[in-house]
TrEMBL record:
The keyword Transmembrane helix applies. The lineage of its organism: Bacteria, Pseudomonadati, Pseudomonadota, Alphaproteobacteria, Hyphomicrobiales. It is a multi-pass membrane protein. GO terms for molecular function: branched-chain amino acid transmembrane transporter activity. The chain crosses the membrane at residues 6-24, 31-50, 56-77, 98-125, 131-153, 174-194, 224-244, 265-288, 300-324. It is found in: Cell membrane. It comes from Bradyrhizobium icense. InterPro entries: ABC_transp_permease, LivM-like. Pfam families: BPD_transp_2. The keyword Disulfide bond does not apply. Keywords: Cell membrane, Membrane, Transmembrane, Transmembrane helix. This is Branched-chain amino acid ABC transporter permease. GO terms for cellular component: plasma membrane.
């Protein structure tokens, strides 16, 4: 009874937030994207038990693919990027061109990111444990170096998304609502997915992959599918983030393993991986800490974020969700047919 009301309340707050806090629209838009980052990482890292440091590859592929589609529909990409490096040519996009480019660019980013996950997953998802984690870390580094040397997409000089016409209005607010919509859809899709047989299958892989294979599950196929679903939403998030940031650096923005790549893991663990609400809570707490430290502790923000990681590992190994469930089982425990049970559970689909 209370759950739909809670969802509607959160949605209502999200809709009115840009009007209540107009000075923080970009940060709030980034927060919704961070929620997508954490949710999609947790699909593979929490629900399936495969800790990936390579999800940033899908973010970067989606970012570049979206912006390249936005530009390439109307101008030669190589000429556009050369002009941004100091040429005299001026490129303009009217309202129709801008919206058409974005409407095509975001699906293109999602598609290419998904295909990338299919190609890479078919190769690396045969590995397990730390071998898989190290391999995915290398994928992110390699992708950044490839983009950094590819002249057609701007190489190390980066790439600037198309300038929005004045008719778009407040650009930060425009992308805020796109990010909000993506976060809501991602949450609802994963919530539904975790209640299906596919959700049970990825949990079986997490609990004991050998037994899952013995029971007849095609584990490699399931793992690749989960990574593709994660990549689909990350591809869209990358397109939104690239346009929101207004500049794409191949290493510091698109394939930013030390920041976005690590943060998406940290947010899921902070909130409680293997849960639905944990990554959401973790993203909110992390974004608040990040912005507060960057505002009031200039020069020490990296130290603060490093201490956050230490505190999480030492004092909150189960994340915030695990911490509150252990201490307040009547309020936050696992519900089974209207009752509440304390302690860990194998399946956490609606929490």
């Amino acid at each position: 009874m209370y759950r739909p009301v809670g969802y509607l309340a959160i949605l209502a707050i999200g809709i009115v937030a840009p009007f209540l806090f107009p000075a923080y629209q970009s940060q709030m838009a980034e927060l919704w994207l961070f929620i997508v980052f954490a949710l999609t990482w947790d699909l593979v890292g929490g629900q399936m038990g495969y800790n990936s440091f390579g999800n940033v590859v899908f973010l970067g592929v989606g970012m570049y693919a979206c912006v390249l589609a936005q530009v390439g529909l109307f101008y030669p990409v190589s000429t556009y990027n050369a002009a941004r490096g100091g040429g005299a040519t001026v490129f303009t996009f009217d309202m129709t061109q801008y919206l058409e480019g974005l409407a095509i660019g975001l699906p293109v980013g999602a598609l290419l990111a998904t295909l990338t996950a299919l190609a890479l997953g078919s190769i690396v998802l045969g590995m397990r444990g730390h071998y898989f984690a190290i391999c995915t870390l290398g994928l992110g580094i390699a992708a950044g170096e490839i983009a950094n040397g590819w002249e057609w997409i701007g190489a190390g000089s980066g790439m600037v998304p198309p300038n929005a016409p004045d008719a778009v209005g407040d650009l930060s607010r425009f992308y805020y609502y796109l990010a909000l919509a993506l976060a809501v859809v991602t949450f609802l899709v994963l919530r539904w997915l975790y209640m299906t047989r596919f959700g049970l299958a990825i949990n079986a892989i997490r609990d004991n992959e050998d037994k899952a294979e013995a029971m007849g599950l095609k584990t490699t196929q399931i793992k690749v599918t989960a990574w593709m679903i994660s990549a689909f939403f990350l591809g869209i998030a990358g397109g939104i983030l690239g346009n929101l940031k207004r500049f794409i650096d191949p290493i510091d923005t698109a394939f930013a393993g030390p920041t976005y790549g690590v943060w998406m893991v940290l947010m899921a663990i902070l909130g409680g991986k293997g849960t639905l609400w944990g990554p959401v809570i973790g993203a909110v707490v992390f974004q608040v800490l990040k912005e507060a430290s960057w505002t009031y502790l200039l020069g020490w923000q990296r130290v603060v974020l490093g201490l956050v990681i230490v505190v999480i590992v030492v004092f909150f190994p189960q994340g915030i969700m695990g911490f509150v469930r252990e201490r307040f089982p009547d309020w936050f425990g696992h519900r089974v047919e209207g009752g509440t049970i304390a302690g860990p559970a194998r399946k956490e689909t609606l929490r």
